[in-house]
């Protein structure tokens, strides 16, 4: 957020309720809780609200409600809350470390490398399939035979790519077993 004030528009009570997706009694409740208004309604006069001021008020209340249990009177985070957050962070870090030690997770760079190798083998296999289909296809006059040959070549390309991925993952499992003493 840039910090620049957003201009609202002047709206009556019903328009504010509609704009915020709430009922008229909810708007009345907001006013009782301190919702800002431009002009108080009375007999024959509509309430007038600045829509931006009301939205800012609601956001501020939501923030206050969200942090109310975590801050002291000055608004600073309490020591207990800081300790709780640190304990949660340490627990998450420990879980990640345990998963890494058990090889239950894959490092992003390893996954990227494996997918790149899969794609490269697949691309090579599909390029080869196109060449084979082009050279053999002109000698075949039956469309079903050409279609079957194309399927076979494409399946061969996918099997080669899958084999590359299996080989890479088998190496990773073997290294994991070695790391665990297995």
How would you portray this structure in words?
This protein has a two-stranded antiparallel sheet. The longest helix has 37 residues, at 143-179. It has helices spanning 13-20, 24-32, 51-67, 79-101, 108-137, 143-179; strands at residues 10-11, 49-50. With 182 residues, the protein is mainly alpha-helical. It starts with 9 loop residues before the first strand and ends with a helix. 5% of the residues are buried. It is 68% helix and 2% strand. The protein has 6 helices and 2 strands. The chain is elongated, with a radius of gyration of 33 Å.
Rounded radius of gyration (Å): 33 Å
Strand order of the largest sheet: 1-2
Q: What structural class do you assign from the helix and strand content?
A: mainly alpha
H/I helix tally: 6
Rounded mean pLDDT is 84
Shape: elongated
Order of helices and strands: EHHEHHHH
Outline the biggest β-sheet. Answer: 2 strands, antiparallel
Give the strand content: under 5%
Helical fraction: 55-70%
Please give the number of β-strands: 2
Gap from first CA to last CA: 54 Å
Low-confidence stretches: none
């Amino acid at each position: 957020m840039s910090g620049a004030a957003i201009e609202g528009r002047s709206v009556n009570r019903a328009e504010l309720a509609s704009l915020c997706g709430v009922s008229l009694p909810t708007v009345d409740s907001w006013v009782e809780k301190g919702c800002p208004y431009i002009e108080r309604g009375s007999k024959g006069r509509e309430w007038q609200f600045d829509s931006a001021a009301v939205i800012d008020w609601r956001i501020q209340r939501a923030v206050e409600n969200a942090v109310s249990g975590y801050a002291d009177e000055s608004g600073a985070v309490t020591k207990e809350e800081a300790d709780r957050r640190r304990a949660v962070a340490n627990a998450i870090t420990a879980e990640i470390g345990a998963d890494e030690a058990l090889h239950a997770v894959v490092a992003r760079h390893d996954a990227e490398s494996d997918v790149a190798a899969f794609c490269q083998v697949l691309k090579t296999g599909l390029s080869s399939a196109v060449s084979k289909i082009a050279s053999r296809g002109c000698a075949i006059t039956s469309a079903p035979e050409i279609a079957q040959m194309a399927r076979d070549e494409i399946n061969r390309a996918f099997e080669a790519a899958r084999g590359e991925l299996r080989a890479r993952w088998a190496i990773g499992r073997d290294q994991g077993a070695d790391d665990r003493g297995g």
